[in-house]
Every structure is written in C-alpha cells, then in structure tokens.
C-alpha cells in the first residue's frame, strides 16, 4: 500500500511539473535589453528578430505557436538568429540598442509598428536588416517570409 501511495505521489508530482515546463517552452523571451542582446548577436554573428505583439491577439499567438517558438527552441537557429518579443503599447521598461532607457511601447512606436503581429529583423546596431513582416499574411508561405528576413539579416550582419 505504501508503494502504491508513493508511486501515485511521484506521478502526481511529475504531472504538476508538466504545465509549467510546457508553458515555458511555449513562449518567447521578452525583450529587456537590446544593447546586451546586440553584444550577444555580435559574438554569434547573427541578427535579432523581434515579434511585436499585443496580449489577446490570436494572430500573434499563432505566429508564436506555429513559427517562432519552434525556431526559438531549435538549436540550429542559435547560429542564425536571436528571437525576442516586444508588447506594443506596453510601459514595461526596455533598454534600446543605443543603451538608452525606453519602454516597449515607445520602442514599437519608434520603429513605426502600429499593427500586430509585426516581425522585424535588426542588425547588431539596431538598424532594420530586412523589410518588416506585417500581419500573418498567407500561413502557407509565412515560414518562407521569416526565413527570407533572417537570411537578409544574416547577410547584413555577416557582410555577405
């Protein structure tokens, strides 16, 4: 009987850890310090992809779930891009590429992001490295749009 209780206790404890782990894996890293991210990008020789989103946006969630989270968790993409998320209109503090303090909303406005989801790829200096991808566009081709933007960013960062 004690073994059975212990076994059920282990199963329950294991099951309780799944949602937290699954949730963590199903999200992107929220931008906090682009100057620090740019330093990492210089070392890796990769661009920085930013998803501009808003809470409750179903298209933003689809872009994250179907495209960006799988990229973010795929080790192969560590050599291709750094992925961050910024919430449009948020007052959350953020350090810009230049080291200046700003907010997520001000960063989005400075980059003329007014529609979500918007994906932008930046070089290590904070300049746009490709054309912005605004909206979900055609889901069948969206991965190709992301790949093309990342490739343009890589070309700019690596001088190709």
Protein architecture, described:
It is a single chain. By secondary structure, the chain is α+β, with helices and mostly antiparallel strands. It has one domain: Glutaredoxin. It is 49% helix and 16% strand. The chain has 5 helices and 6 strands. The strands form 2 sheets. The protein has a 4-stranded mixed sheet with strand order 2-1-5-6, with helices on both faces. The protein has a two-stranded antiparallel ribbon with strand order 3-4. The longest helix has 24 residues. It is globular and about 35 Å long. It starts with a helix and ends with a helix. The N terminus is likely disordered.
Q: What is the multimeric organization of the chains shown? A: single chain
- The total tally of domains equals 1
Major sheet characteristics? 4 strands, mixed
List the secondary-structure elements in sequence, H or E: HHEHEEEHEEH
- In CATH, the homologous superfamily goes by the name Glutaredoxin
Q: Looking at CATH, which topology would you report?
A: Glutaredoxin
Classified by CATH, the class is: Alpha Beta
Question: Approximately how much beta-strand content do the residues carry?
Answer: 15-25%
Q: Which percent bin holds the helix content? A: 40-55%
Provide key terms for this protein.
16% strand; alpha+beta; 160 residues; 5 helices; two-stranded antiparallel ribbon; 49% helix; 4-stranded mixed β-sheet; disordered N terminus; Glutaredoxin
């Amino acid at each position: 009987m004690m073994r059975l209780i212990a076994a059920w206790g282990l199963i329950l404890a294991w099951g309780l850890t799944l949602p937290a782990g699954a949730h963590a894996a199903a999200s992107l890293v929220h931008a906090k310090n682009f100057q620090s991210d740019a330093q990492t990008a210089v070392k890796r020789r990769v661009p920085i992809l930013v998803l501009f989103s808003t809470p409750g946006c179903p298209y933003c969630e689809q872009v994250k779930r179907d495209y960006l989270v799988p990229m973010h968790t795929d080790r192969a993409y560590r050599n291709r891009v750094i992925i961050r998320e910024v919430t449009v209109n948020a007052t959350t503090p953020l350090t810009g590429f230049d080291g200046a303090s700003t907010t997520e909303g001000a960063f989005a406005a400075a980059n003329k992001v007014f529609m979500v989801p918007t994906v932008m790829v930046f070089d290590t200096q904070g300049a746009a490295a490709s054309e912005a991808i605004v909206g979900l566009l055609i889901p069948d081709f969206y991965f190709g749009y992301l790949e093309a933007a990342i490739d343009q960013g890589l070309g700019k960062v690596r001088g190709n």
